[in-house]
Amino acid sequence: MINSLAIKFLDRSTPPSIFTIICLSAVGALAMNMHLPSLPAMANTFNVSYSAATLTVTLFLAMNAVFQFIVGPLSDRFGRRPIVLICMAIFCVSSVGCIFSTKFEIFLFCRLIQAIVVAGLVLSRAAIRDVYNQDQAASVLGYATMGMAILPLIGPAVGGNLEVYFGWVASFWVLLGVGIFVFTLAYLDMGETNKQKSSSMAMQFRAYPELLRSRRFWGYCITATFSAGAYFAYLGGAAFAGREIFNLSPGILGFYLGAPAVGYIAGNGLSGRFSVGLGINRMILTGTIITAVGMTFCILLFLFTIPIPLSFFGCVCFMGLGNGMVLPNATAGMMSVRPHLAGSASGIGGTINTAGGATIATATGVILTPSTGILPLLLIMFACTIMSIISILYVVRRAKEIDFAG
Question: Tens digit of pLDDT for each residue in 167-185?
Fold first, then answer.
């Protein structure tokens, strides 16, 4: 691991500090979930259906996938720093558009452009891999995402209470303020970490087959996709469950929606503490098993007891715990297969993860109705965890084959 003394806060000649990395990572998560308790109110404001309002989540995720595919390769070509600054500036401008939109179509367009904030997450990860080896990168990612998870934890609660006192538009004013702060912080603190820039975009794309032919890269991608897919399914159905099934107010629902972040913080802490010693594959496998156990327990409670909010939102904390162990390690694995393509690996892997998550979230939103209850949501989340277990077992087997051949 590099000497921490080599990183100086607010010094553009050194790699970004852990604080800056946390902020760059967190702003995207905050933008995704802060307005969730206000979806019904937004639907009423624009006179559209609730399902139309959920497009601000599902299409936002889809655009996340598109932008990740673009910004990763661009950062390998031009550097992490300039791409981060450009994308954060665009996020701020699109936030202004969301605030002053008078038609749903305009609001939705600005909301989709907001998704470019994902560059902060993609490129902060790439910056970490630029300066750390595989297991150390997983450890640093764990600590970084532990700090990052605080904002998604409080975001829905803050958004719900902002709606109560100031209306749902207040959430987007907050996002604008956060965006300006993070842009300024990145400008002052994020030194360039990409020391192996490709000479042209054509050369960059010619290097892709080297990455895409790796079965371990795909294994880590699929593991992360299904692990995150359980959470995206939760995003697609939890607000509906809270409002329609449990009749929770916006403020209380916002508090409950942050439940997975509690477990996620703990899981990230475990990743930071143990990834170097145990290795990323053991950490990923353990995390997927924890998630599966938690979802099994949740399903049993809903089948054999009277459903209450605590039995649902409490159990999904186990999903957060498992994801906190899986995602930093799987991300480090993706970027370590071909270290010189870390930005592209982060972008392509993130695209796959987010596109899969958007698909799962959309399907969940379509399936759930007051008559079905939330059991379909639980079954989708459980199926995602089983697939993530199968995927990481394949990676483990492939790693043994490579070791044996070597």
Answer: 889 999 999 999 999 999 9
Q: Are 268 and 274 in contact (CB under 8 A)?
A: no
Structure tokens at 208: 């892709």
Chain mean pLDDT for the chain? 83
Q: What is the pLDDT of residues 106-161, one digit of tens each?
A: 999 999 999 999 898 888 878 887 877 767 777 777 777 776 667 666 777 788 88
Full domain range(s) for residue 308: 15-405
Is the CA virtual torsion 304, 310, 312, 315 positive or negative? negative
Q: What is the CATH number of the domain that holds 137?
A: 1.20.1250.20
Closest among 317, 335, 167, 307 to 234, alpha carbons compared: 317
Place of tokens 């492939």: 398
For residue 10, is it within any domain? no
Is the pLDDT at 237 greater than 50? The verdict is yes
Give 2-37 pLDDT, tens digit per residue: 444 467 788 788 888 888 988 898 888 888 878 888
Q: Is the dihedral of CA 256, 262, 267, 268 positive or negative?
A: positive
